[in-house]
Amino acid sequence: MNTPVEGFSKLSKAEKIDWIAKHYTKDAEASKQILEQYWNADAKVQKLHDEFIENTISNYYLPFAVAPNFLINDTLYAIPMAIEESSVVAAASKAAKFWLNKGGFKTQILGTEKVGQVHFIYKGNTQTLQTFFEELEPKLRKSVSDITENMEKRGGGIKKIELRDLNEQMEGYYQLHCTFETLDAMGANFINSCLEQFAKTLKEKAQSYAAFSEDEKNLEVVMSILSNYVPNCLVKAEVSCPVAQLDKNPVAAEEFANKFVQAITIAKMEPYRAVTHNKGIMNGVDAVVLATGNDFRAVEAGVHAYAAKDGRYTSLTHAAIEDDTFTFWIEIPLALGTVGGLTSLHPLVKLALEILQNPSAKELMEIVAVAGLAQNFAAIRSLVTTGIQKGHMKMHLLNMLNQMGASESEKQQLVQYFKDHIVTHASVKEALEKIQSQ
Ligand code: MEV
Question: For residue 249, what pLDDT is reported?
Fold first, then answer.
């Protein structure tokens, strides 16, 4: 039975490793070796990683790949992706190539508004609070002028501060519901700093507001925090082409287009399918969000809330056939940044942004939406034609061979062999054993 540890964060890295290996692993020496194997050879890079979070004992790698040939608004991109799932990058690249000679992807920013709220309790007269708020609003803005000065110089800042009455949900519950424009920054720190100052000013000014009773003066701030629900920080990405271009065989092209639209319709109607459908979209979205040092948890939370905004969880993508033209598009909320956070700190993130030609936050929103759309196109295309296992298992083949301890030459032979054989765990094992016994 292990006992709790005191002051763990103050131990040195070596002491932390010793402690964890000794108390929670079977072979302390072997565990230490694994942890050290993943340290960066460059001490400066390692120190950077050590300082990103508390109690760092090693680094956790994900493959960092690029999917080339993405034509987006007539510019060619190679998109960096950080992801462990074997078929995702291959699928993205395939979709990019498919649309390359059909006009590529077109995108449009539909909004860039971020949201933050001060949640507070006021058990008094609503009209008095409303009058107080009208006087308070300019004071709130003034109280954060040193935080907003730089952002305002660049054209951003606080857009709107509203008083929202949520008494019906909970007695005495009100909000300062605020919207922000944070330009190329994701803006979490900027927004949270403004909100915490708003909360202080709100409390302070309430204390000295003559029309308030003693109770009303003591309104209570519960919390101040940005919202990851960003339905007005929205981007659209689209592909379209004549149905006949979808396949060399005209009958197959029409059948494919119809089945594709049916698959999207099913994902729109049926939550079990919608969740998996959107998961496939997020394979592309998260991989680029991670590679560019953005907060994928924030993006995930916001995207799924958006998918359920009308009361039922539904597809993020849409498809239609009109006048023999096939159109496929996505509308997705993405609060992203290309400055601040990890973007200038993490060497690979910096490189990923350079590969993307140092995009603005708006351009990154467009690229990420395209990655999601491409991923969905590839998944639906496989699902309504060959099924996904064919491509999936091919990509998984190397993982299986590595797990089975195949040598480089065995891997090469078997990759060749499975080009026209069905990949299953049993068939791979059998084929490997056959080679090994020869
Ligand atoms: C697997 O990671 C993603 C898919 O299941 C997505 C989908 O079903 O649309 C293939």
Answer: 95
The 10s digit of each residue's pLDDT in 403-417 is 999 999 999 999 999
Instruction: Name the nearest CA neighbour of 262 among 331, 320, 312.
Output: 320
How confident is the model over 101-125, as a mean pLDDT? 98
Residue 324: left if φ>0, alpha if ψ -120 to 50, beta else—which one?
Answer: left
Residue of 259, 264, 277, 396 to test ligand 1 pocket, by largest number of atoms within 8 Å of CB: 277
- Boundaries of every domain in the chain: 8-50, 65-106+234-385, 114-227, 392-437
Structure tokens at 143: 């109280």
- Tell whether ligand 1 has an atom less than 6 A from the beta carbon of residue 315: no
Buried b or exposed e, range 214-232, using 16+ CB within 10 angstroms = eebbebebeebebbbbbbe
On the question of pLDDT at 285 being above 90, the answer is: yes
Residue nearest to atom 7 of ligand 1 (CA): 277
Known catalytic residue at 85: yes
Nearest CA to ligand 1 atom 6: 280
pTM (predicted TM-score) = 0.92
Mutate to test the pocket of ligand 1, among 281, 383, 385, 395 (most ligand atoms within 8 A of CB): 383
Q: What local confidence, expressed as pLDDT, does residue 420 receive?
A: 87
**Burial of 317 from C-beta contacts in 10 A (0-12 / 13-18 / 19+):** buried
Q: Which of 193, 223, 125, 195 is nearest to 165 (CA)?
A: 125
Chain-centroid distance, C-alpha 174: 30
Give residue 376's pLDDT.
98
Out of 3.50.30.10, 1.10.275.10, 3.40.50.1220, 3.90.770.10, the CATH code matching 65-106+234-385 is 3.90.770.10
pLDDT score of 391 more than 80: no
| Atom of ligand 1 lying closest to residue 388 CA | 10
CA of 414 to the centre of ligand 1 (A): 26
